[in-house]
C-alpha cells in the first residue's frame, strides 16, 4: 500500500474529474461549466437528472459508469482511510507509542515523584516538554493527558524510543528516574546518539554524581538528595541560568549573559534595556581589554547610563516571560 493512501486517492479522484470534464465537454458538446457540473453530480452520486447519458455514445456511457462506481467507491474508501488514520493516531498517542517530530524541546525521562515538579518548572520557563515513562502509574498518565503533554511509554534505554522522541533535535534531555545505573546507561547512549545536546542526569549519591560528571562528559549530574526539581529544570533549560526562585505561581530567574557582537544589546545603554524589558541588572563585567584574556573587575548594581559592549557580561534578575524577550535580543 502507498505510504500515504489518502493522498493517492485524492490525486486519482481529481484526475478522474478532470478527464470527465474534458470527455463530456467534447464528447457531448457541453460548455465547460455544464461539463464540470455534470461530472460532479456523477462522482458525488447526486444526479439531479437535468443531464443524463441516455443518448450518449456507448464509450461515453461506459466512462459514465466508471465515474459512478469510482466516485462512490472512492468516497467510501477515503472516509474509511481517514477514520482509520485518526483512530490509529489516537490509539498510538494513548498507548504512548506515537512518534513525535519536535524541535528545541526538553525530553523528561521518568515521571515519578520528582518528574511532575520538574515538568511544572520547565513549563513555567516556557519550554516544550516530551515525557518518557514506563507508565506504571495511571494517575501520572492521566495527568499528562489532561495537560496535553506528549508522552512515550517504554524503556528510556531503547534507542528506538529516543528516536521517536526526536532526541537529535531536542534542546536537552533529563534522565530523572530513581534508578541511578539506568539513568547513567541511558545518558551514555544519548550522548553517543546526539553529542551536542545538553544532558542532565539524576543520581542519588552526591559523590557518585560528581565523579560521573567529570568522567563521562555530561554537563549536569545532580544529586536528588541535595537539590530539588527547580535545579533540574534550570540545568536543562539553559546554561545561562544561575538560579531559579519560585514566588507564588511565578518564577524569577537569575541569569548571566554575554553580549555578542552585532546583537541589539551591543551598544545599548542599560537604561534603554530596562525600558524595553522589565529586569534588574545585578552585575556588569566589562569585556577583557585588548591583548589580555581576563575580564575587568565586575560592578554590582551598575549605573544605568553604562553602554553595553560586545564581550561584556551581565547578570540579571528577570521573570520567565521577560526572559524569552531577552533571549531574542541576545541573538
Structural commentary:
The chain is of the alpha/beta class and 331 residues long. It has three domains: 5-94, Helix Hairpins (Orthogonal Bundle), CATH 1.10.287.70; 106-237, NAD(P)-binding Rossmann-like Domain (Rossmann fold), CATH 3.40.50.720; 241-330, 2-Layer Sandwich (Alpha-Beta Plaits). Helix content is 45%, strand content 18%. It has eleven helices and eleven strands. The protein has helices at 5-27, 32-43, 58-94, 115-124, 138-146, 159-164, 180-193, 206-215, 229-237, 270-276, 320-330; strands at 106-109, 129-133, 151-153, 172-175, 198-203, 220-223, 241-247, 250-258, 279-285, 299-300, 313-319. The strands form two sheets. Strands 3-2-1-4-5-6 form a six-stranded parallel sheet, with helices on both faces. It has a five-stranded antiparallel sheet with strand order 7-8-11-9-10. Helix 7 links the parallel strand 4 (172-175) and strand 5. Helix 4 packs across helix 9. It starts with a helix and ends with a helix.
Give a quick set of tags describing it:
about 325 residues; Rossmann fold; Alpha-Beta Plaits; 3 domains; five-stranded antiparallel sheet; elongated
SSE topology sketch:
Blueprint: H1 5-27, H2 32-43, H3 58-94, E1 106-109, H4 115-124, E2 129-133, H5 138-146, E3 151-153, H6 159-164, E4 172-175, H7 180-193, E5 198-203, H8 206-215, E6 220-223, H9 229-237, E7 241-247, E8 250-258, H10 270-276, E9 279-285, E10 299-300, E11 313-319, H11 320-330
Parallel strand pairs: 1-2, 1-4, 2-3, 4-5, 5-6
Antiparallel strand pairs: 7-8, 8-11, 9-10, 9-11
Helix pairs in contact: 1-2, 1-3, 4-9
Amino acid at each position: 500500500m502507498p505510504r500515504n493512501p489518502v493522498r493517492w486517492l485524492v490525486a486519482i479522484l481529481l484526475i478522474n474529474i478532470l478527464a470527465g470534464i474534458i470527455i463530456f465537454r467534447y464528447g457531448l458538446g457541453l460548455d465547460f461549466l455544464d461539463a464540470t457540473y455534470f461530472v460532479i453530480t456523477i462522482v458525488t452520486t447526486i444526479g439531479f437528472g437535468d443531464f443524463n447519458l441516455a443518448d450518449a455514445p456507448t464509450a461515453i456511457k461506459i466512462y459514465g459508469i466508471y465515474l459512478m462506481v469510482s466516485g462512490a467507491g472512492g468516497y467510501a474508501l477515503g472516509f474509511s482511510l481517514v477514520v482509520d488514520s485518526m483512530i490509529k493516531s489516537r490509539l498510538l498517542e494513548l498507548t504512548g507509542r506515537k512518534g513525535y517530530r519536535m524541535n528545541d524541546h526538553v525530553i523528561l525521562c521518568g515521571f515519578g515523584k520528582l518528574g511532575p515538579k520538574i515538568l511544572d518548572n520547565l513549563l513555567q520557563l516556557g519550554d516544550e516538554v516530551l515525557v518518557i515513562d514506563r507508565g506504571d502509574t495511571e494517575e501520572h498518565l492521566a495527568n499528562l493527558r489532561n495537560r496535553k503533554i506528549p508522552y512515550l511509554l517504554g524503556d528510556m534505554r531503547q534507542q528506538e524510543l529516543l528516536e521517536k522522541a526526536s532526541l537529535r533535535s531536542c534542546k536537552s534531555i533529563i534522565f530523572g528516574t530513581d534508578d541511578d545505573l539506568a539513568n547513567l546507561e541511558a545518558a551514555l547512549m544519548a550522548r553517543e546518539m546526539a553529542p551536542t545536546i545538553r544532558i542532565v542526569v539524576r543520581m542519588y549519591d552526591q559523590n557518585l554524581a560528581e565523579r560521573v560528571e567529570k568522567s563521562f562528559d555530561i554537563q549536569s549530574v545532580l544529586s536528588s538528595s541535595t537539590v530539588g526539581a527547580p535545579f533540574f529544570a534550570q540545568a536543562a533549560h539553559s546554561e545561562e541560568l544561575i538560579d531559579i526562585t519560585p514566588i507564588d505561581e511565578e518564577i524569577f530567574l537569575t541569569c548571566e549573559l554575554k553580549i555578542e557582537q552585532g546583537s541589539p544589546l551591543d551598544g545599548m545603554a542599560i537604561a534603554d534595556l530596562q525600558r524595553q524589558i522589565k529586569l534588574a541588572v545585578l552585575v556588569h563585567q566589562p569585556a577583557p581589554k585588548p591583548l589580555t584574556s581576563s575580564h575587568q573587575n565586575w560592578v554590582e548594581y551598575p549605573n544605568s547610563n553604562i553602554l553595553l559592549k560586545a564581550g561584556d557580561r551581565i547578570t540579571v534578575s528577570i521573570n520567565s516571560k521577560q526572559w524569552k524577550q531577552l533571549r531574542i535580543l541576545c541573538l
